[in-house]
Amino acid sequence: MSEQTENKARHIEVTAADLPLHCPTPSQVLWNAHPRVFLAIEETGEALCPYCGTLYTLKGGPRSRHH
């Protein structure tokens, strides 16, 4: 997410480089639109912000955990 996006975006694709994921992201124009909330996206491949409703999807899908 190298370019700035508006907080009006309702779907944003992120990569592993963007983890840990939080909303709003630093690239969003109105980065202080609501309190920063960290979103768990690794296990399911997607996360919904409880404040603004933006849906984030992880490019490549969920990350598998090896124990």
What does this structure look like?
The chain has about 70 residues and is mainly β. The protein has no helices and 5 strands. It has strands at about 10-15, 20-25, 35-40, 45-50, 55-60. The strands form 2 sheets. The chain has a 3-stranded mixed β-sheet, with no helix packed on it. It has a two-stranded antiparallel sheet with strand order 2-3.
Helix content: under 10%
Nearest-angstrom radius of gyration?
12 Å
Classification by helices and strands: mainly beta
Mean pLDDT: 83
The portion of residues forming beta strands comes to 25-35%
In which order are the strands of the major sheet placed?
A: 1-5-4
Name the shape in a single word: globular
Count all strands and give the number.
5
**How far apart are the first and last residues' alpha carbons, in Å?**
30 Å
Summarize the structure.
This protein has no helices and 5 strands. It has 67 residues and is an all-beta fold.
